[in-house]
Write a structure and sequence with these properties.
188 residues, mainly beta, SH3 type barrels, OB fold (Dihydrolipoamide Acetyltransferase, E2P), 3 domains, six-stranded antiparallel β-sheet, five-stranded antiparallel β-sheet, 54% strand
């Protein structure tokens, strides 16, 4: 059992019948009344973020969660297949556990979040940025750069991303996996 004095960003706790990670917290000692802790909690399974206030010193059950390195192999009708990079054990996951599955390409390194006591897979997280090649996009029109305009581009994984007009087919771009948006062009 931990208390609010043990709070750290990224700590995983059992709260309201689910697993939550602490996004941020702040200890508050008002001039009048008891101390409390304001916190933002993110649900591990759904990704929902909620604000919560804990009374200072209240006991919280800390959950043991492990991040394991895996490599994406392929996708078929049964789900997404991954291989553990240290012991080469293979596993497959449903699409609802994988965050942004449209950005997964063969050989991509991911982290799978596993509840240590039950062995239940909680989430599959991609790195913050991935680099993908554009397989199709309309050509940009010269002189059409007065504003920040974007056009759709189909990536090698089949995902469609909005990119600036100067980006063409065959180029590699960096994509933010949290937002699914274009970040920058990658030099080959």
């Amino acid at each position: 059992m931990a208390s609010t004095g043990d709070f750290k960003n990224g700590m995983c706790i059992e709260f309201n019948g689910g697993l939550w990670t602490i996004v941020e917290f702040q200890h508050v000692k008002p001039g009048k009344g008891p101390a409390f802790v304001r916190s933002k909690l993110k649900n591990v399974k759904s990704g929902k973020v909620v604000d919560n206030t804990f009374t200072a010193g209240v006991k919280i059950t800390e959950a043991r969660v492990e991040r394991r390195p895996y490599q994406f192999l392929y996708k078929d009708d049964s789900g997404f297949h991954f291989m553990h990079t240290e012991n080469y054990e293979q596993t497959f996951l449903n699409g609802d556990v994988v965050t942004t599955p449209e950005l997964l390409k063969d050989g991509q390194a991911v982290e799978i979040l596993v509840h240590a006591e039950t062995g239940e897979v909680l989430a599959c997280d991609l790195p913050q940025f991935v680099e993908l090649e554009i397989t199709y996009t309309e050509p940009g029109v010269k002189g059409d750069t007065a504003t920040n305009t974007f056009k759709p581009a189909t990536m090698e994984t089949g995902a469609i991303i909005k990119v600036p007009l100067f980006i063409g087919e065959g180029e590699k771009i960096r994509i933010d996996t949290k937002t699914g948006e274009y970040v920058e062009r990658v030099n080959n």
